[in-house]
Amino acid sequence: MRRFLPYGLALLLGGVALGFQMGAVFSSNPARRAFHKLQEVFLIVQQRYVDPVDSARLTERAIRGMLSRLDPHSVYLSAAEMRRMQESFDGSFEGIGITYELLPGPDGQDTIAVQSVIPGGPSDQAGLLAGDRIVAINDASAIGFTHEQVQRTLKGPRGTQVRVTVRRPGVPEPLEFTITRDRIPLHTVDAAYMLDEQTGYLKINRFARTTHREVVQALRRLRQQGMERLVLDLRNNSGGYLEVAVQVADELLGDDQLIVCQKGRRPEYQASWRARPGGLFETGPLIVLVNERTASASEIVAGALQDHDRALLVGRRTFGKGLVQQQIYLPDGSALRLTVARFYTPSGRLIQTPYRGSRQDYYAAHWRRAAQDVTRSVEEILAEVPDSLRYYTDGGRVVLGGGGILPDYLVPPDTLSPLVQAVLRRNLDQRFIWRWFDRYGAQLRQRWARQEETFVKVYQPGSAMRRDFYNFLEENGFQFGGARDEPAALRFTEERWQTDWKVLRTLLKAQLAVRLFGPRARYPVYHAIDTTLREAQRLWEQAAALDQRYKERLRLLRD
NAD: present as a keyword of the record (predicted)? Predict the structure, then answer.
């Protein structure tokens, strides 16, 4: 039977877990002696070291050093880190409801620029607009604020008020707003929309408390819009709550199919989870997008769907984090995130990449493997796998264990030209759109009000934006044409400009979409140049055949 843990005991993968208050428990004399030795050294250093010692900092460093000898994912989190982490995985925070950037001002100090306003949120109700510059908070200047200062002054308990003074392009005098803080959702479903009349697209960025509810709402909405097949995008999803990942997988798998097993040293960490009947998309062609930043809880979902031949996996090999952490709170609000178990996919695969040496070695090896994978095919990689790491899906396909999940179809990462890389490295697409939006934001808002879908389909940056962006790049040191042998780090040919304009205009359009409709609006725009998504959509025939065989096996199991 499927087992669910209450959230109070939930285990997390790649994210956090709610834990228990820690007590000093020693099960053996050697452990007790080691503890007393550590305690004695600490007291000696505190009392006799030549300079005064910061006890709190020394203790934190000792804890981090201790955990660094265990595995790459057992870590210590300070109280401040815990607060930020908890907000992310609770799925909400209390604040004013904006996204922002810090833009260089005329005097060189950063200014808080409102990138987007959450619809229906406190700032939206108060009248803030994308493009506004917040110059004062509670009558004190906010010019030169750091991100930490912005967070500290704009966030606050629900129901409390904050006064902001803004400069709005085209309005000569500063504007003042009193905003009542409220609970602001942190969505984990970045995008859910129809790619065409029958294909739904769903992107999940992490597995937090609200994720299952968001996924259910998205799947129901896509079904109502005619979805018959689905692209589930787990790229760059670093994990989260184990139970929530199980709930999402349950919506996509048939009754009683194993989702994941967990094995730890202590009996309470032995568990397994199975699907229940009534999932919203238990059958139908399914493609899952993964990459080298797909990790942990998202690997549970991808691994279960691959092992049961429920979905085709497309993209690049996943990170390979198969360890389960429990979060153990300390009295000052800090916490240990300690590995207590390993998880295994339905075929018995351990996804965890072997770890030897330092954490730096571990992550460096991961990126080397990712670079090597793109030069080979799936067949070539599987041919090199020893028998001990070969596992089989329900339908008899060979899958890889011992180091991430290898997709069924490998797609190399997009290779950006030196020109596009230079633009992105210096954030020139964003900086240009701020200037453009300052000039044309009012008429763009009026023209495209409540027309996000039409904007995505119809709008294209025209000749005026192309000319202005070209000039903007030249203002920022880019050179086009001229003598080929003239040295310049930012010299590019006119031909390169012509070739890259298609990508550059998509980047600019996405930045405009964010300012007009919010952060989620960027995804349908980016998808016009998304190579992995484009390759995936060529594989629907294979996905449909896999789905047909899956449905036949389900019928046999039910009979």
Answer: no
